[in-house]
Design goal:
The chain is 33% helix and 18% strand. It has eight helices and eleven strands. The strands form four sheets. A four-stranded antiparallel beta sheet has the order 3-5-8-7, with no helix packed on it. It has a three-stranded antiparallel beta sheet with strand order 6-9-10, with no helix packed on it. Strands 1-2 form a two-stranded parallel sheet.
Length: 348
């Protein structure tokens, strides 16, 4: 596409102001012309004029392809052209590079032909135009580069109804199964955690054991041996005697039978005398062979105590003293002697 640029130069020369004719390159033949005006202010035309042309290459670009905006300027060699920091690219036509490509060639008549190329990407299909921007000249003048249209080719999709091979839809076969091996670190992490916990438990138990070993164990004296059954029984009997002086005969007889005689027989001969009747106790004592054990006396004492407890019989204080004396005699007669225990190894 060819653009004829009309340049106006205001300068003082011998013949007065002289307009600059635009130059048309033969390379631009076949490109549609467009009216683009270049305004040049405050420049001395000198012997050679100014000319500016702009074009888009290629003439048609595929969607997503790169297009070049090429600006050619014929200028006096002593003049310099400054480029703007931003040429105003858009999302539909972004720049491929922030830095344009410049090339200059001396023409031999005091002028220079300079080419400046800006790259863009065509990301739209219609109403796509290059941005307009300004080139600054070293003497303060400006050159206006107009916006140029960009023709974008869009390849149509094949028509499945045209009946030809070109319109046939090609269906790609289904892709096969692709197996990817992905390492799973979780089992290793769990194993490491178990090892760490196990090590911590072992270390803790070792520390507790070492601390226990470090603490001296204080062994106290052994517990005293149990008191002999006859000593306990005689002590209880003596503790009951004040009840007779107070006239508490019935209570004395009941305690004499339960707390003294029954408990003594149960402890001395390993009997369950505490919860058994007098008859059952006598029957159990028949299998015991101990010197001094008067089973008949046990039966008589038990029957007298049962009369007081269950038949509401009353004994005098002298009768109660007699019962206590017989109980004492039975305990003393059947008491376990240490010498006899050593001889037969058990109950004498």
């Amino acid at each position: 596409m060819k653009f004829i640029l009309v340049a106006a130069l205001l300068a003082q020369v011998d013949a007065g102001p002289r307009p600059i004719e635009p130059r048309v390159d033969d390379a631009d033949a076949g490109v549609v012309d467009a009216g683009v005006v270049v305004v040049v202010e405050g420049l001395d035309a000198g012997p050679a004029g100014w000319a500016l042309s702009a074009r888009v290459e290629p003439a048609r670009v595929p969607f997503g392809g790169e297009v070049q905006l090429i600006v050619e300027v014929t200028r006096p060699a002593r003049m310099k052209i400054g480029l703007p920091d931003d040429v105003g690219a858009s999302d539909e036509l972004p720049r491929t590079s922030n830095k344009p490509v410049r090339a200059a060639k001396e023409l031999g008549d005091g002028t220079v032909n300079e080419t400046i190329s800006f790259g863009f990407l065509a990301l739209d299909v219609k109403d796509l135009k290059t941005p307009a921007f300004t080139l600054a000249v070293s003497d303060g003048a400006v050159l206006e580069v107009p916006s140029l249209p960009v023709a974008v080719d869009v390849t149509p999709l094949p028509d499945p109804t045209d009946g030809g091979s070109n319109g046939a839809l090609v269906i790609e076969p289904a892709a096969g199964t692709v197996v990817y091996r992905v390492d799973d670190p979780r089992p290793w992490a769990l194993l490491a955690l178990l090892v760490l916990v196990g090590t911590a438990v072992v270390a803790l138990r070792a520390a507790i054991k070492a601390r226990q070993l470090a603490v001296p164990v204080v062994v106290g004296p052994p517990p005293p041996p149990p008191r002999p059954a006859h000593e306990v029984a005689l002590e209880r009997l003596d503790a009951l005697l004040p009840m007779l002086t107070r006239g508490e005969v019935d209570g004395f007889v009941a305690l004499l039978m339960d707390d003294v005689l029954r408990d003594y027989l149960a402890s001395r001969f390993a009997l369950a005398a505490g919860t058994r009747t007098t008859k059952e106790i006598v029957t159990d004592l028949l299998s015991v062979a101990v010197v001094g054990l008067d089973i008949g006396l046990v039966d008589k004492l038990g029957q007298d105590a049962d009369l007081v407890k269950f038949a509401r019989a009353h004994l005098s204080a002298e009768q109660a003293h007699g019962m206590a004396a017989r109980v004492r005699a039975l305990i003393v007669a059947t008491a376990l002697k240490p010498d006899a225990a050593r001889v037969d190894g058990g109950t004498p």
